[in-house]
Amino acid sequence: MIDLGKYEIWFVTGSQHLYGPQVLEEIAKHSREIAAFLDSSKSIPTKVVFKPVMTTPEDITRLCQEANASDACVGLVTWMHTFSPAKMWINGLKILSKPLAHLHTQYYREIPWADIDMDYMNLHQSAHGDREYGFICTRLRLDRKVIVGHWQDDGVQKELGIWSRAACALADSQKSKLVRFGDNMREVAVTEGNKVSAQINFGYDVYGYGVGDLVKVVNEVSDKEIDDLVKVYLDTYDIAPNLLPGKERHSSLREGARIELGMRHFLQSGNFTAFTTTFEDLHGLVQLPGMAVQRLMADGYGFGAEGDWKTSALVRAMKVMNAGLKGGTSFMEDYTYHFSPKGDKILGAHMLEICESIAATKPKVEVLPLSIGGKADPVRLIFDANTGPAVAASLVDLGDRFRLIVNQVDVVPTEHPLPKLPVARALWTPQPNLKQAAAAWIYAGGAHHTSFSFSLTQDYLRDFAEMAGIEYVAIDNSLDLNHFKQELKWNDLYYHVAKGL
Ligand code: MN
């Protein structure tokens, strides 16, 4: 469902006419070679497109206008091979509305000690050309990513790859439509927010539909479609015996399939990329959508429970960022604590809706009662999550801005089997430890709902937050809680001032 290969980042080299046509040809040759190399890099999922060497303010302004207008272009990678007087860049950079990366590199890796002369020095001068360019970016207060190193280095390719994935997520977000089936869960604060502010920052549009509109589509699903999807279930999962064809609860499995198909049709026909449900508003739906939500998330849809559209959009953005990577991303909730002398831990889960992309083993399908909601017993996928490093991310609306809070965590095996727990789950130790991480999270106003990812690191989310112009705070092993509390206060002041009116 998510294809990052359709997106482009434009590789733009700066210079000036001072050096004469021969040198400019040489610069273009080098630049073309670097762009082609990055285009073929396995670390970069987008196309990397060479653009002509920029030598005049008019060309730079036109290029930035073209980038703004291009559907495919998600960002610009800029590099000053030689000296490019930076006043030339002011008009273009002022109007550029796409993310900007500054690749501070050099064509040759090492100094040719025996042969270096002034011709060489005059051609390979990004060491000072990029500083001139960097000044004007700083003078314009531009949020951008500076990446330093030789262009063939793995680390440089990876950093560009991370940045390009974040840029794809922002491009996707700017065109996304999110549908809420029902409103926010009554009285819950953190899942609320200003949808106009969200659209200004991220671009996505949040629609509300009555659950009856969904029920109508669910009821139109044909028996043949249900038969086919049930076959997929039987082939894919470990199905509880009572749900098998001919057994006493098989109709529950078929009802789950009907709900999945109805939701899928609704999302496809409206071009929605993310959605929310709420167990308080299920009028006409037989079950709370469980397995349906889990499987739609696995296909790349964003999801937030209880009307949580901000988390739904964040799950979608993170699924765009991790397209094609190992791991997985899911909606998640901090559920229960394990305070133990062997190390405090968090058990994460939700009523039903954890994405199977983070499953360690083949999920089991079961139908079990739900203690809240007052509907028929819903079918759900049950599994233990993978183990290893992961991030938990929460997006909150502080009234004057959005804050993205990210906790680096280590997911570990459960100490014992959990035979009576009827939902998918993950057990983790938050960095630096639960005592400090939870305090920092709560001081920052982080929600109980998160988007939880094994494939992404903080670097992706920091790049994404900077591109969207929102606040980013991290909780990891480098946390100093007192400093963190001060950082929150400084940020209050910064965002108040930086916003202007
Ligand atoms: Mn919840």
What distinguishing features does this structure have?
six-stranded antiparallel β-barrel; alpha/beta; 501 residues; 38% helix; 19 strands; binds manganese (II) ion; five-stranded parallel beta sheet
Layout of helices and strands, plus pairs?
Layout: E1 8-14, H1 21-39, E2 47-50, H2 57-69, E3 73-80, H3 90-95, E4 100-104, H4 118-123, H5 126-139, E5 145-148, H6 154-175, E6 177-181, H7 195-202, E7 205-209, H8 211-219, H9 223-236, E8 238-239, H10 250-269, E9 274-276, H11 291-298, E10 302-304, H12 309-321, E11 329-338, E12 345-349, E13 364-367, E14 379-382, E15 388-397, E16 402-412, E17 425-430, H13 434-443, E18 449-453, H14 458-468, E19 471-475, H15 481-498
Parallel strand pairs: 1-2, 1-3, 3-4, 4-5, 6-7, 6-9, 8-13, 9-10, 16-19
Antiparallel strand pairs: 11-12, 11-18, 12-17, 13-14, 15-16, 15-18, 16-17
Helix pairs in contact: 6-12, 6-14, 8-10, 9-10, 10-11, 13-15
